[in-house]
Specification:
Blueprint: H1 7-22, E1 36-44, E2 50-58
Antiparallel strand pairs: 1-2
């Protein structure tokens, strides 16, 4: 899953979308049989530095 700038707001949005996929609550955007989602966000931070953030959201079998 990838989205663009800004890093902080976009990262939160990506985590929420990932949770919805895992919880089977993504509505029309649901991907069937999803158990793991990885996000990667690349953007420009303060002082012209590049910021990267990556998360893996998953659900183990019960």
């Amino acid at each position: 899953m990838g989205l663009g700038y800004p890093v902080d707001a976009t990262g939160v949005r990506m985590l929420l979308d990932s949770y919805k996929q895992i919880a089977r609550a993504a509505g029309n955007y649901q991907i069937n049989h999803t158990r793991t989602v990885m996000t990667f966000n690349l953007g420009r931070g303060s002082a012209n530095a590049t910021t990267c953030a990556s998360f893996i959201v998953g659900k183990t079998k019960a």
